[in-house]
# Entry
Amino acid sequence: MKLTNKTWIYLWEEWAKPILVAVLLALLIRTFIAQPFKIPSSSMYPTLKIGDRIFVNKFIYGAKVPFTGIKLPKLRDPKLGDIVVFLSPIEKKKYLVKRYIAGEGDTIRITDGELFINGKAIQGSPFNKFFYYGRGEFGVENKVITVPEGSFYALGDNSANSLDSRYWGFVPDKNLVGRAFLIHWPIKRIHLITEDY
# Structure
């Protein structure tokens, strides 16, 4: 069966064009606005549970333009308590979800389960819910650690079962993907993720 020009126009207008527009919109949203991730481990328990599906806000810290070194303007810098997604500093192409603790120039110390940033105990919510174990090369009990330039320090909420900055050190700022803002699955767990959550 030979397709006429009228048929080709119909197929383009009614099928191909809408599908192409939908695909392009989905790619733009995923690249610059929000991206879904699934929680694979218990390192952020009880805040995030295994199997939780989250959306990550990519434009808040400045989304990256693919295949370039260009970064779009950010709304704000990461701050203490943000739950962030970033590329692992030790495993290429692996995404991690942890809590942002400190940026360049800040000092961190873990003493008796308490977290100290720049010499001050962090006692407010959600940090008063967690016990931090002094472990690993970059998390030795009572040792003051300084975050180097262009990096940040991240910890899991489930300190007893989290491979985080205490073990592998600092995360380059360029590895930051965005901030988790919503658990969208399972249905009974749907809610916004706030700093004190």
About this structure: The mean pLDDT is 91. The chain has one domain: 35-192.
